[in-house]
Amino acid sequence: MNCKCETEREGKRKKWFIFLLLLFLILLILVIIRIKTPDNLSHNITNGIGFILGPNTTDNSSSDDTAAEQENVAIFGHGVIKIQADEKEAEVDFYNPKENKGKYYLKFELKIYNDSIKNYETIYTSTLVEPGKCVKKVMLTHKLKKGIYRAVVHVQPYKMDEDKTLTNNADMRVKVIVE
Amino acid sequence: MKRLISFLVCILMIFILPKYAVAEEEIITQDSTDKSGQISIDYSIDESYTVIIPANVTFTDETTTVVGGLQVSDVMIKEGKTLKVNVTSLNNFKMINGDGYINYSLLVNSNELPETNSCDVIVVHAGEHSGWAVLNFVTELDKENALYAGAYNDTLTFTVSID
After folding, report:
1. Could A169 and B8 be called an inter-chain contact, meaning their C-beta atoms sit closer than 8 Å?
2. Chain-centroid distance, C-alpha B48
3. How far is residue A58 from each of residues A53, A55, A162, measured CA to CA in Å?
4. Chain B residue nearest residue A151, CA to CA
5. Model pTM?
6. Which residues in chain A have Cβ-Cβ distances shorter than 8 Å to B2?
7. Closest approach of B77 to chain A, Cα-based (Å)
8. What one-character-per-residue DSSP string does chain A give?
């Protein structure tokens, strides 16, 4: 009798053990999925690419890239940019759409209207951003105080040719909310 | 062993929980006077758009009219707002080389621009998601003021604003 009870208890213990083990494995799989899934799937992140337009810049792009005949350039814009007060590091979303692949780099400048000088002052300039990539974290030239600022994101496309020829450009008026 | 697994399960659940939103609870019992409940569902869409501008316009002796397009798509703006695309010429619609220049003109949807170097080309109201304009660049290649050999250039800036 005692032996039967002991066997039943052992059986129950085994079932519990298997149940907990399965639960653990399921949770482990969920954790792995969570770690492998990036929070922003929309674009790749970069702080710009590895060269800046200048006299010493070398171009390693293939001749196929420069042979493109596309005459239009796509530019993505926002209505509002939110920035943390009193911090030089800011999160933005300066994106060069995939439609510009093989044709145009984009360079972004964030200009804030400064009441004291009655003009726009540039607080961030990117390097050339490749198509399909975006700039997420930037370092501003100075910290901003809380408030709502008039601002412009100036977007200058560059042809992906040897001379990095400038094209027509765009000014995207935005509201910068510093909070 | 059971305790160890339970502990590990608890740790894993702590990792997983932040991924999912938790709805605020409202408990309705038999004694509640109002037996109906409400939940609020919130989702916010940022204002955004894509503008496609003509990158280059090249005139030749044979090509004195170039047709280009300007387009805004995926427009999401707040109710009551309007998205406008304005075009401005750096040299007042002159291609310049030093102090020499060649005039050209820009027709928007076959209409001549007002006597300014700036004009609203596309207007998109809230609720509409796209807009476009046909741009005709025309020059008579009048070389009377073209003083030098070489390239003559102008740059257009397309300004997008939401008001």
Report:
1. no
2. 6
3. 9, 9, 8
4. B161
5. 0.70
6. 13, 16-17, 20
7. 8
8. -HHHHHHHHHHHHHHHHHHHHHHHHHHHHHHHHHHHS-S--SSEEES--S--SSTT------HHHHT----EEEEEEESEEEE-TT-SEEEEEEE--GGGTTTEEEEEEEEEEETTTTEEEEEEE--PBPTTEEEEEEE-SS---SEEEEEEEEEEEEESSTT--B--EEEEEEEEEE-
Q: Token digits for B69?
A: 């397009």
Q: Tokens for B49?
A: 């758009």
Query: Under a CB-based contact definition with an 8 Å cutoff, are residues B55 and A168 in contact?
Result: yes
Count of A–B CB contacts within 8 Å? 108
Q: Express each pLDDT in A28-76 by its tens digit.
A: 776 666 555 444 334 444 332 122 222 232 333 333 332 233 479 999 9
A74 closest CB neighbour out of B8, B52, B160: B52
Q: How far apart are CA B137 and CA B94, in angstroms?
A: 12
Name the residue among B8, B13, B53 with its Cβ closest to that of A75: B53
What Å distances lie between residue A37 and A26, A40, B18, B78, CA to CA? 17, 9, 14, 31
| pLDDT, average across residues B79-86 | 95
- Alpha-carbon distance A136 to A108, whole Å? 12
Is A72 within 8 Å of chain B by CB? Answer: yes
Q: How far apart are CA A176 and CA B95, in angstroms?
A: 35
Task: For A137-147, write each residue's pLDDT tens digit.
Answer: 999 999 999 99
Of the two residues B121 and A4, the one the predictor is more confident about is: B121
Q: What 3-state class would DSSP assign to B151?
A: coil
* Chain B interface mutation, best of A25, A34, A72, highest count of B Cβ atoms under 10 Å: A72
Cβ(B74)–Cβ(B49) under 8 Å? yes
